[in-house]
Amino acid sequence: MALSRIEKLSHYAVVVIAVSALVVSVWQAGITIKHNKLTVKPYLDFHIVQIDSTITVKFSNEGFGPAILEEVSFFYEDEQYQSVWQVLEKMDEIDNWAGSFNYNPGTVVAPGAEKLLVSLKGGQHIRGVKAVFRYKSIYEESFDMELTF
Predict the structure, then answer these.
(1) Could you read off the pLDDT tens digit of each residue along the chain, which spans 149 residues?
(2) What sign does the dihedral 75-76-80-83 (CA atoms) show?
(3) Which CATH class is domain 44-148?
(4) Is 12 helix (H, G, I), strand (E, B) or coil?
(5) For the chain, which residues make up each domain, given as ranges?
(6) What is the helix (H) or strand (E) element at residue 134, kind and residue range?
(7) Is 39:65 a contact under the CB 8 Å cutoff?
């Protein structure tokens, strides 16, 4: 029994609708994945505060998800250092040290958390130190933040 022309069109329409539904489902899945990543994306920001002769450098996670630190490096006079204390020694700023903290790989910075990097006494405002933070989200996406103080 041969199919009529309308029945053939009906079968093609069903196939087109099915393929269209598949395309929309794949597209929706992509949007959902992107949305999920954005809802847990960390965003590190820094704050330099000077009160009288004390300069304090802090950073915070202003994003929605935790920031997992992979590396924190310091650069001073074209040399790289792994800790802020090494930089202070090179700068001969040990006597001006008022507080600091070194962060190891794997340190988690929660959303909304503010962390101390270094606090220095002394009248010198900008000391020419660059700090580079490499961090990732829980989706293993890598990000960088640089600050100079």
Answers:
(1) 677 888 888 889 999 999 999 999 999 999 998 998 889 999 999 999 988 889 999 999 999 999 999 999 999 999 999 999 999 999 888 999 999 999 999 999 999 999 999 999 986 666 789 999 999 999 999 999 999 98
(2) negative
(3) mainly beta
(4) helix
(5) 1-39, 44-148
(6) strand 130-136
(7) yes
